[in-house]
Amino acid sequence: MLKELFKEIWDERKIADEEGAEYVSCVDCSKRIYEQNLKVHHFSHTHSKGNSPHLKFEKSNVQIRCFACHSFLDNGLKIKYNIID
What we know:
Layout: H1 2-13, E1 15-16, E2 22-25, E3 32-34, E4 43-45, E5 62-64, H2 67-75, H3 77-80
Antiparallel strand pairs: 1-2, 2-3, 4-5
């Protein structure tokens, strides 16, 4: 069910670049994430699924983040600076 939710969010938030390729931007750093590179780890819950299970399927609780920003949000500086992007 989460996969379907993520697909809906992608479809609602995507835009096209200058060449017509569709992408979404990371909410933190604005890095472009193109559909062919999109993975489940790009979807981040603002309120964690563990602490707020009732918000797990709320679109407003899901943001799209690049891997580095999602890792930073979840794990802090220690992880962010070890990622090569």
